[in-house]
Design goal:
Strand order of the largest sheet: 3-4-12-9-14-7-6-5
Keywords: Ethylene biosynthesis, Iron, Metal-binding, Oxidoreductase
Order of helices and strands: EEEHHEHHEEHHEEEEEEHEEEEH
Protein name: 2-oxoglutarate-dependent ethylene/succinate-forming enzyme
Distance between the termini: 61 Å
Bound molecules: 2-oxoglutaric acid, fe (ii) ion
Radius of gyration: 21 Å
CATH architecture: Sandwich
Pfam family, one: DIOX_N
Structural class: alpha+beta
CATH class: Mainly Beta
Helix content: 25-40%
CATH topology: Jelly Rolls
Family: Belongs to the iron/ascorbate-dependent oxidoreductase family.
Number of helices: 8
CATH superfamily: B-lactam Antibiotic, Isopenicillin N Synthase, Chain
Pathway: Alkene biosynthesis; ethylene biosynthesis via 2-oxoglutarate
Oligomer: single chain
Number of strands: 16
């Protein structure tokens, strides 16, 4: 502890560098995305300011006026409910263990997002960009690209999931423009890096948990997301919590017509931790089944992520070595997904 003499006596102060401690948030900000679509320069500047603040102080926020049709969202949730209601055998037919790139179904407890815990109480279906096996990046070993696995049905499942995915890709490009403005960069700064994005959509089903709950076995254990940002749609059930700088869990309930967006680790690395990749978890104590649809958006497999020049200076030296988007996500998957081992031979 250092001491500072004032006219009214001595005060103690911690020697904690030049930056002020962030104010711990107690609720999540709401960002109006309308300006990114209507192009008015003044309101865009306001959006950039609001977004910068949300990403710096919280790392979690709601977005409204996102232009995603409610019918596409409702369809995706209906599809998720029908999919998870099937018999286990049906779902296991497209199990992730049959995929090199984590596409398909994973059962309860097969994911362990927090490696110190005992497995997550959710089941999931993962899909991402459809890339053929003979694509040049796939043959060169870019293991996160590849084909999806689809359930055998009348095609409705694939149709509604792909419709939702297409909306998320469109929205992510707009959101990335807003992030660039928030970083005082040109709006299209990141555009060349996202034409073949590592972008994964998950359907999640959380059964309710009753009685006394061991915090090592909850819906999804405490974690940060790996990609640039996540766009999350929740059904009507509140279960998501975000950790503030005081170490307190803050509730992030669903708001009708809004998505929750959170900054991921790749964006934190790009911004040298100016934007914060906030830890979160979900516990479904509602007594009802819960469904959510996170969409994780990161740049192309080979895009190099390193601290942006504008986020590095003498008092904030670069904290991260350059790494490709693919290597980063790959290493995180290997740590948290029981069936993920890109070095092994997979048979469909
Ligand atoms: O379901 C939720 O509310 C959160 C999901 C999540 O954090 C994730 O899948 O990374
Ligand atoms: Fe997450």
């Amino acid at each position: 502890m250092a001491k500072l003499n004032t006219g009214n006596g001595t005060r103690l102060l911690k020697d904690s560098g030049l930056d002020a401690a962030p104010v711990p948030f107690d609720s999540l900000p709401v960002i109006d995305l309308a300006p990114i679509f209507n192009g008015d320069p003044d309101t865009k500047t306001q959006l950039a300011t609001d977004l910068r603040r949300a990403c710096t102080e919280v790392g979690f926020f709601y977005i409204k006026n996102h232009n995603v049709p409610q019918s596409v969202i409702d369809d995706a949730f209906g599809t998720a409910r029908r999919f998870f209601a099937q018999a286990t055998d049906e779902k296991m037919a497209i199990h992730v263990a049959k995929s090199k790139n984590n596409r398909g179904y994973a059962a309860l407890l097969e994911e362990n997002t927090d490696p110190t815990a005992r497995g997550d109480l959710h089941e999931s279906f993962d899909m991402a960009l459809e890339v053929p096996e003979d694509d040049e990046d796939v043959t060169a070993g870019a293991v996160l690209y590849g084909p999806n696995q689809w359930p055998e049905d009348d095609g409705k499942f694939r149709q509604s999931v792909e419709a939702y995915y297409a909306e998320m890709i469109k929205l992510s490009h707009q959101l990335l423009h807003a992030f660039a403005l928030a970083l005082e960069l040109e709006e299209d700064h990141f555009d060349d890096l996202v034409d073949k994005p590592l972008a994964t959509l998950r359907l999640l089903h959380y059964p309710p948990q009753f009685g006394e709950i061991d915090d090592r076995q909850i819906g999804i254990g405490a974690h940060s997301d790996y990609e640039c940002f996540t766009i999350l749609c929740q059904d009507k059930i509140s279960a998501l919590q975000a950790l503030n700088t005081n170490g307190e869990w803050i509730s992030a309930p669903p708001l009708p017509g809004h998505f929750v967006v959170n900054v991921g680790d790749q964006m934190a690395r790009w911004t040298n931790d100016l934007f914060t990749s906030t830890i979160h978890r979900a516990i479904n104590r509602s007594g009802l089944e819960r469904y959510s649809i996170p969409f994780f958006f990161g740049p192309n497999y080979n895009a190099v992520i390193e601290p942006l020049e504008s986020c590095v200076d003498e008092t904030h030296p670069a904290r991260y070595e350059p790494i490709t988007s693919g290597s980063y996500v790959n290493s995180r998957f290997a740590e948290t997904l029981a069936h993920y081992d890109p070095s092994k031979e997979y048979k469909l």
